[in-house]
Structure formats: C-alpha cells, structure tokens
Amino acid sequence: MSKIPQGEWSAIAARYAKGESISRIAQTYGCTPPAIHYILKRSKQRSAESSEERANGKPDLAASLAAKQKKRLHLRLQKHQCRKIGTLRNAALKKRGQTVGARRGSPPCTGP
Known about the structure:
4 helices; mainly alpha; 2 domains
C-alpha cells in the first residue's frame, strides 16, 4: 500500500460524489476503505476551510486555534477517564481480595 497523493483526493471525492462505493475506490488505489473514508473526510474539511477563507478573504485563525485546543482537551479528558476507570477497577478488585493488574502480565497496583 502506498500513500495516495493529495492531488488525487479531489478525484476520489468526485468519484464518491458520482455514487461509486468506497470499497471500489479503495480497490483501485490498493488501500483499505477506511483510508478512503479518511481522505473524503479530510477533503470535505479542507473544502469548507477554503470556502471560508474565500468568503472572509483570509483564514479564520482564531476558529482553527479554538478547534485544535478543543480537540487536545477532548483527548486529554479521554486519557483521564481511562486512568480513572482503571483506578476504580483496581480499588474494586482490592476490596474483593483479588489480584490487581493480573491482566496482560501487568504488575499489581500498589494503590494510592
């Protein structure tokens, strides 16, 4: 599988808009359907950004910065929730007297 150049992205979007399936497009490029889905999603975002730039005459830097910060915050919260759930799981196992961290060969949790 090779990387599809961005110059081809508009052709992929046009083929999809004409009704061709993502699977068939992926077969012609020798990649997976999720890769084509990613390209379609990104090309849609870029076209929206470029039309916004044309309407305003310049890119909306504040909006793009806010979107990036929102995405970073979302990822940080996801990581925090995973840690929190793991801690709660470990505490529940300790109460029951079961070994904590026995899955996937990880060392037991010593707790807070």
